[in-house]
C-alpha cells in the first residue's frame, strides 16, 4: 500500500510539472460541468455555484478572460499571458498554477471573445473608451473611434517596438502620442524617436527608410540601421555635414568646433581654392577647414586675412610690407612699381 501511495504521489508530481512545461494557450477546459454564464449587476461572470472564474477560460471553443473580480472583459486588455498567468485553469483535480504573471495586450470583441489575430490587423485605436472595459460597460468600437494598424504575434498578443516583416522594418509604438503606455502598439509613420535615435518611416507604407531622404525641403541621411545621421558623414570620397541636433544636411558656410567650412549646394564639403563673388578662400585639401594667414600651395605663398579672404596688392603683416599679384601669389625677388621685395617677399627700403 505504501508503495502504491508513493507511486501516485510521483505521478501527480510529474503531471503538475508537465503542466508548467506545456503551453496551455486556448485549450478547452476539461471540467466545465456545472459552469455557466451569469449576469449580475450589469456584469457577466462564469460561475459554478458561488465560485467565479478569475482567469482565462475556453468555452465552446471560444476564449474569454475573467478578471480578479470574475468580471468578463471586452476591448483592449493588458492581462497575464494564458500560459504565464497567476491563476490559470481550472485544471483536473482542481490544480491551479500561481506565480508572477507576464502581461501582454490582447483584443476581445464586444461579446468578450478573444480575437485570435495573427499578423497585421486594422482595428479601432486604443483609447480610454475601449481599454480595460468589462462586458456590460460602455465600450466604443470602430464606428466611433479612429482605425489604426496593429500587429499580433502567434500567441495573439499585441506586438510593440520594431518589427521585421516581408523585408521591411516597421515601428509599433511602445506608447501613444501622449506618452501613455496603454495607447501603444499602433503602426507609426513619419519621424519617430526610439530612445535617443530618430528614424523615418514612409508615410504611406510605414516601412523604415534608409539612405538619402528629401523631407520637408531638407536632406537627411539615414544609416543602414535606419538611424538618422548627425555630424560629419562620408559618402564615398565626399564629406557632408548633418546638423548635430536636427540631422538636416547643411550648405554654405558653417562653423564647427571653432573652424569654418564651406558646403556646396549639393552639401559636399569644398576643398582647395573656392571663389565667392570676387573673393578667393582656401579650404584645407584634406580636412576642408578654411585657412587664414600664410599658406604655401603648389610652391607659392599666399596670404589669407582673418576672414579667410585671399589678399592681393600691397599688404602689411607684423610691420612688414608685401605684394601679392592679382592671382594672390606673393611677389619675391622682384621690383613692383619701383619697390624691391626680397626672397621672403618683404619690401626692402
What would you give as the CATH superfamily of one domain? Cholin Binding
The structure class reads: mainly beta
Look up the CATH topology of one domain: left handed beta-beta-3-solenoid
Q: Rg, please?
A: 37 Å
> The biggest beta sheet, please?
3 strands, antiparallel
CATH-scheme architecture of one domain: Ribbon
E-strand count: 29
Commentary on this structure:
It comes from Streptococcus mitis. The chain is mostly beta strands and 349 residues long. The protein has one helix spanning 2-21; strands spanning 36-40, 43-48, 51-52, 56-59, 62-65, 73-80, 103-108, 119-124, 133-134, 147-152, 161-165, 168-172, 190-194, 197-201, 211-215, 218-222, 231-235, 238-242, 252-256, 259-263, 272-276, 279-283, 293-297, 300-304, 313-317, 320-324, 334-336, 339-341, 347-348. It has a domain at 271-348: Cholin Binding (left handed beta-beta-3-solenoid), CATH 2.10.270.10. A three-stranded antiparallel sheet has the order 1-2-3, with no helix packed on it. Strands 7-6-9 form a three-stranded antiparallel sheet, with no helix packed on it. The N and C termini lie far apart (128 Å). Mean pLDDT is 84; it is low at 1-28, 84-100 and 176-182.
List keywords for this structure.
mainly beta; 3-stranded antiparallel sheet; N-acetylmuramoyl-L-alanine amidase family protein; disordered N terminus; left handed beta-beta-3-solenoid; repeat; 39% strand; 349 residues; Cell_wall/Cho-bd_repeat
Amino acid at each position: 500500500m505504501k508503495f502504491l501511495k508513493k507511486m501516485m504521489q510521483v505521478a501527480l508530481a510529474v503531471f503538475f510539472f508537465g503542466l508548467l512545461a506545456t503551453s496551455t494557450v486556448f485549450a478547452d477546459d476539461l471540467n466545465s460541468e456545472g459552469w455557466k454564464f451569469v449576469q449580475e449587476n450589469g456584469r457577466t461572470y462564469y460561475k459554478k455555484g458561488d465560485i467565479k472564474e478569475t482567469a482565462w477560460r475556453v468555452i465552446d471553443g471560444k476564449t474569454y478572460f475573467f478578471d480578479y473580480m470574475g468580471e468578463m472583459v471586452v476591448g483592449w486588455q493588458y492581462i497575464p499571458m494564458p500560459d504565464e498567468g497567476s491563476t490559470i485553469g481550472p485544471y483536473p483535480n482542481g490544480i491551479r498554477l500561481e506565480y508572477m504573471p507576464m502581461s501582454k495586450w490582447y483584443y476581445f470583441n464586444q461579446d468578450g471573445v478573444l480575437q485570435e489575430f495573427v499578423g497585421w490587423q486594422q482595428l479601432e485605436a486604443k483609447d480610454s473608451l475601449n481599454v480595460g472595459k468589462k462586458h456590460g460597460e460602455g465600450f466604443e468600437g470602430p464606428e466611433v473611434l479612429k482605425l489604426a494598424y496593429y500587429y499580433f504575434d502567434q500567441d495573439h498578443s499585441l506586438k510593440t517596438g520594431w518589427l521585421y516583416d516581408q523585408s521591411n522594418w516597421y515601428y509599433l509604438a511602445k506608447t501613444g502620442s501622449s506618452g501613455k503606455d496603454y495607447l501603444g502598439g499602433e503602426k507609426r509613420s513619419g519621424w519617430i524617436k526610439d530612445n535617443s535615435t530618430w528614424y523615418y518611416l514612409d508615410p504611406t507604407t510605414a516601412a523604415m527608410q534608409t539612405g538619402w531622404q528629401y523631407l520637408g525641403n531638407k536632406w537627411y541621411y539615414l544609416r543602414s540601421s535606419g538611424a538618422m545621421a548627425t555630424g560629419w558623414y562620408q559618402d564615398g570620397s565626399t564629406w557632408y555635414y548633418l546638423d548635430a541636433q536636427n540631422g538636416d544636411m547643411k550648405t554654405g558656410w558653417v562653423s564647427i568646433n571653432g573652424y569654418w567650412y564651406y558646403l556646396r549646394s549639393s552639401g559636399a564639403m569644398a576643398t582647395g581654392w573656392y571663389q565667392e563673388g570676387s573673393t578667393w578662400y582656401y579650404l584645407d585639401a584634406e580636412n576642408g577647414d578654411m585657412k587664414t594667414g600664410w599658406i604655401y600651395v603648389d610652391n607659392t605663398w599666399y596670404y589669407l586675412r582673418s576672414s579667410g579672404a585671399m589678399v592681393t596688392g600691397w599688404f602689411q603683416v607684423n610691420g612688414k610690407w608685401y605684394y601679392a599679384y592679382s592671382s594672390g601669389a606673393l611677389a619675391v625677388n622682384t621690383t613692383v612699381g619701383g619697390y624691391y621685395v626680397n626672397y621672403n617677399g618683404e619690401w626692402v627700403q
